[in-house]
């Protein structure tokens, strides 16, 4: 499946709460950088700890995901939407990741996260940013 992924510069929680009210949806699921199991190994300020590492909600039947851009990564207003591919076949996701990075660039090497055992970000040669995510069994 392909899902829109929204990026924000520190106001992701505010945006998700706004969309919750605007679209009359269930509250968004939010994981902050401070709540992440990796937080103890990261040099996070108190402000960084409150930023959204991963959030998601359902709007009109579609899953919409979002996060605040971490310090050190570029945020450009207008380029704040990417496409997230989710699936249960990790081998296929890895193959797609490799194909998309040809003549493009890797924004984040694939890693294991609290929500996925495979998660990576790549921008293809056309400038489209893709986030590939393995769906954990508990979903």
From TrEMBL:
The name this protein goes by in its record: VOC family protein
InterPro entries linked: Glyas_Bleomycin-R_OHBP_Dase, PhnB-like
Domain spans labelled PhnB-like: 2-133
A Pfam short name: 3-dmu-9_3-mt
């Amino acid at each position: 499946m392909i899902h829109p992924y929204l990026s924000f510069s520190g106001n992701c929680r505010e945006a998700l709460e706004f969309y919750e009210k605007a679209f009359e949806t269930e509250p968004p699921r939010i994981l902050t950088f401070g709540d992440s199991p990796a937080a103890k190994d990261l040099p996070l300020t108190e402000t960084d700890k409150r930023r959204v590492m991963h959030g998601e909600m359902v709007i009109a039947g579609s899953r919409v995901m979002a996060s605040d851009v971490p310090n050190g990564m570029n945020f450009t207003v207008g380029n704040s939407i990417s496409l997230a591919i989710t699936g249960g076949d990790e081998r296929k996701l890895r193959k797609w990741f490799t194909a998309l990075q040809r003549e493009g660039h890797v924004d984040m090497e694939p890693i294991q996260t609290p929500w996925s055992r495979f998660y990576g970000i790549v921008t293809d040669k056309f400038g489209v940013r893709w986030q590939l995510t393995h769906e954990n069994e508990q979903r």
